[in-house]
Amino acid sequence: MAIPHEIDPRATGDPRNVYTSDEQFYRSDRPAMPVLPEDRPRGGRPGAPVRHRGTWATVAMVAGIILLILVGIALFP
Questions:
Q1: Which DSSP category does 15 fall into?
Q2: Could you give the CA distance from residue 54 to residue 63 in angstroms, rounded to a whole number?
Q3: How do residues 35-46 score in pLDDT, each as one tens digit?
Q4: Which of 9, 12, 21, 58 sits 20 to 30 Å CA-CA off 48?
């Protein structure tokens, strides 16, 4: 049984069955100068530390959700 992705041997002379080699295929979309500049240069001073939102915002959000649930239970017993 033939592999399902092989070309039918009866169609080998068909000009539509001409495919590029792997090297030609992968070379076709590469830039002329494939070396890119470094996006994170080494050395230098480290940047400022990232500041995250305070815990008060998280506490307020959790308290608001709990309050909403309690009000919902109180209004619709």
A1: G
A2: 15
A3: 777 677 676 667
A4: 58
